[in-house]
Design brief:
With 537 residues, the chain is α+β, with helices and mostly antiparallel strands. Helix content is 39%, strand content 14%. The protein is built from 16 helices and 13 strands. The strands form 3 sheets. It has a 6-stranded mixed sheet with strand order 1-13-12-9-10-11. The chain is globular and about 95 Å long.
Length: 537
């Protein structure tokens, strides 16, 4: 009998491919003059972007096309029409992102609640109460703070007010905690200025090299249309400045070159890495989304079930019938350290996983994880270590990167509901797959459960026979074959040889070929028989 408290499990689906491409390269060979000009242009456009973002936030939800045109006209006088279009679009997108983040924050605040009373025993599905009255008191105060914050956020949303910091709120707060951030005031100021610069422009199909504002030729030459107040810095006709350095895209370089040669739209962004004192150029463009293959095609050759953990991927290859084949594999990564290090660790682990899937010619099954509303003590009790673990897992970014990398290799990604995969995998697969030479972990068993769910099979290996009868009167129920499948209840085929483990399979041949060692077992013609004539005299 099914447990009525179990939530509904969503069916698996094939993840759609990416709809855009972004590549980055370093700008080498730049002169000191190039660096100074880029800094001046970025600072000037950054100040315009700050003012435009303020105007956009003041307009709120009542913003319309007329106000947009007015903002663009005001910026055109201080820059150019194309720079003004890029600034207004970027600030509008930034306001929209902040508006969506505000709604998500309200949903998180609405989920705030208290757990069971003090001393209340917990269950398998609900955490227990707080240990002491002091803990209850602190949580109650925290709840009141969250309720006040919720009321403030609701009033801001009704009024259309969003709060955005150009350069980032975290970096702004570091100004008041320089010692904790391990920064000097000069280092912080350089980072703050670089984050607030604006050097990005959208592409235009039909224009030369696909972008008139930041023009990058097929030979790697980079030219920038200078704003009107900085036109005196131009070193090329029509108020343009051409950098001394050249760029070269190693990744997707041929695709980019074909695109700019055909004058198709390419968006560019120039930014400074303050830590390395290096300038970078990012090119991006939209592509037609890759149509996902049907789910039946993705399941055809089996797949690889992948369980995502805080420090590794646990993967196991399954055939089309849901049976684990081969040995489990683990792809390790380290999420401690700076963002660039964490990103490289995840990318290398995904690369090894995808190469294995390509050699096996199978799809990959992953969980549709989201810990957005399930990190609190009221959800998971006093398990601080576990709450910290799920808070540090970049599941959304990881899935997006896996889908984009898999699309390049032609590998399908099947997404499944994560409900009960770890629990049921450990209950039904961990022990059967363990042996003296292989210790199957809980994560390996979860990978098997994920793969079976993606293939459309039940996670349970085999249901028990009818409790009142061990014969076939009611019919044995299996997870692999339906009631109408032919041969599911037939006897096993006859296997030649003895049916007992006490007699080795080659016992008959051994008896035939072994030599006799006693007179009793020797043949008659070879037995030592005493001649009766010798006894007569």
């Amino acid at each position: 009998m099914a447990d009525s408290t179990l939530r509904t499990i969503e069916p698996p689906f094939v993840a759609p491919g990416p709809s855009g491409v972004a590549i980055r390269t370093s700008m080498k060979g730049m002169s000191q003059r190039d660096r100074e000009v880029l800094a001046l242009v970025g600072a000037h456009l950054g100040s315009l972007a700050c003012a435009d973002l303020k105007a956009r936030c003041q307009a709120g939800t009542g913003h319309d096309s007329g106000q947009w045109a007015q903002r663009k006209r005001a910026l055109t006088e201080e820059s150019s029409s194309r720079w003004a279009g890029s600034v207004t679009k970027a600030t509008h997108d930034q306001w929209g992102l902040a508006h969506r983040a505000q709604l998500a924050h309200i949903h998180n605040l609405e989920a705030a609640r208290l757990s069971q009373p003090v001393g209340q025993k917990g269950t398998k599905r609900e955490p227990g109460g707080y240990r002491t009255k002091q803990e209850w008191f602190q949580k109650t105060r925290r709840l009141h703070v969250l309720k006040d914050r919720l009321e403030r956020e609701r009033s801001d949303r009704e009024a259309g007010v969003v709060r955005v910091v150009r350069g980032g709120k975290r970096l702004a707060r570091n100004r008041h905690n320089l010692e904790a951030a391990q920064l000097t005031e000069h280092e912080w100021r350089r980072r703050w200025d670089a984050e607030r610069w604006f050097l990005q422009a959208d592409g235009e199909s039909g224009k030369r090299f696909g972008n008139e504002t930041i023009r990058v030729g097929s030979d790697g030459e980079v030219g920038i249309k200078l704003p009107a107040p900085l036109a005196h810095l131009a070193n090329a006709p029509h108020g343009r400045y051409v950098l001394d350095g050249r760029i070269d895209f190693r990744h997707r370089g041929e695709e980019w070159a074909d695109r700019v040669s055909a004058n198709r739209a390419v968006a560019y962004r120039i930014h400074l890495d303050v830590n390395r004192d290096r300038w970078h150029l990012t090119a991006s463009w939209t592509i037609l989304p890759v149509q996902p293959v049907p789910l039946a095609v993705a399941r055809a050759n089996g797949l690889i079930g992948v369980d995502t953990n805080a420090d590794h991927f646990a993967a196991w290859r399954l055939d089309e019938h849901g049976n684990p084949t081969g040995e489990p594999r683990r792809f390790l990564y380290d999420l401690d350290g700076p963002a660039t290090y964490r990103d490289a660790q995840v990318r290398h682990a995904l690369t090894r996983l995808l190469h294995w899937a390509r050699r096996e010619d199978v799809s990959i099954a992953i969980e549709d994880l989201d810990f957005g509303a399930e990190k609190t003590r009221e959800k998971h009790g006093r398990r601080k270590r576990f709450r910290k673990l799920i808070s540090g897992m970049p599941v959304a970014r990881l899935r997006a990167r896996l889908v984009s990398m898999a699309a390049e290799l032609g590998i399908s990604i099947v997404v499944v509901d994560p409900a009960y995969t770890s629990r049921w995998g450990a209950a039904h697969w961990q022990k059967p797959l363990s042996s003296k030479n292989r210790k199957t972990t809980r994560h390996d068993a979860a990978g098997v459960a994920i793969g079976r769910r993606a293939l459309g099979h039940r996670i349970r290996r085999r249901t028990a026979p009818p409790p009142h009868d061990q014969s076939d009167r009611v019919g044995h129920r299996t997870a692999q074959a339906g009631h109408g499948t032919r041969g599911r209840e037939e006897t096993r085929p006859r296997i030649p040889g003895p049916r007992t483990r006490s007699v080795p399979p080659d016992a008959a041949r051994t008896r035939e070929t072994s030599a006799s060692t006693t007179a009793r077992d020797a043949p008659v013609d070879q037995a030592r028989v005493q001649d009766s004539l010798l006894l007569a005299d």
